Amino acid sequence: MLQPVAADDRTVATLVTRALAVLDHDPNGARLCLDRLASLVADRRNEPAAIATPSQPRGGLASWQLRRVTEHIEASIAGPIRVETLAALAGLSSGRFTDAFKASTGVTPHAYIIERRVRLAQRLILETDEPLCQIACSCGFSDQAHLTRLFGRAVGQTPMRWRKAARR
Q: Tens digits of per-residue pLDDT, 94-138?
């Protein structure tokens, strides 16, 4: 789980940048970044955060459950993430958790994790000169071929072609 951090300008800028980067394809991820930002700003001002959250989807996870699970996914993205572990964090059985997660996010936990890994790979591809095989391992893919296959499905290009096009 994420530890509280001071609301310095760099942290604020990072959270805003992340929220903007994922807004179109991952509204829940953007909402989590903005919730975290509101919490940091509220801590700085010593007042409660005032972000309106939409009502919980019928049969979905409570906001605290979704936040706890997605924070765990982000913190553990480079390693294996088991549905049983996520379900335990939410206090639900694996089957009930999977249904509730899909009701809340629109995708299964597995699809969400793959999407987060691909987005992390995109960020690392843009921000570093690391070889793709190293980026694949940093993002929780088994190897470069695994990254290439899932990246291609999600983005429509191989990681190398995407890197070259993004750097033009």
A: 999 999 999 999 999 999 999 999 999 999 999 999 999 999 999
Q: What is the rounded distance in angstroms from the CA atom of residue 53 to the CA atom of residue 67?
A: 12
Q: Which one-letter amino acid corresponds to residue 161?
A: R
What distance lies between CA 127 and its chain's CA centroid?
17
- 42 in Cβ contact with 24 (< 8 Å): no
Query: What is the per-residue pLDDT for 91?
Result: 96
Q: Which of 56, 61, 59, 85 is nearest to 72 (CA)?
A: 85
Q: Is the pTM higher than 0.90?
A: no
- 64: exposed, middle or buried (C-beta count within 10 Å: 0-12, 13-18, 19+)? exposed
Tokens of 65: 């459950």
